[in-house]
Amino acid sequence: MPTPVHIDFRRSGGIAGIDMTASVDSRDLPDEHAGVAADLLSGGDNLRQGDSPGVPDGFTYEVNVSDGSRSQQYQWSGPQVPAAVRPLLDDLGKRAQPASPA
Description:
The chain is α+β, with helices and mostly antiparallel strands. Helices cover about 20% and strands about 30% of the residues. The protein has a 5-stranded antiparallel sheet with strand order 4-3-1-2-5, covered by helices on one side. A hairpin with a 4-residue loop joins strand 3 and strand 4. The longest helix is centred in the middle third of the chain and has 12 residues. It starts with 5 loop residues before the first strand and ends with a strand.
């Protein structure tokens, strides 16, 4: 069994401007989403930021993945999210709760 990946997710921006966060272990995700998290931890170049510009009132996504010994951080604006990552972000977005005020 592969090492579990811990994922910290933040979606910010949008019209309402409410930050949404989730913290999830890959063992709690469907297998295909857990696989994307593992790919993110490996730092795949095809999962880096795309070249589309952001959009006004669009979302920005921040994802931090870690297995305890390695970690990777990603940030995308909505149109820049690689197609392979979108299903994972959709799943994390459904699990997210409003962020605590700083």
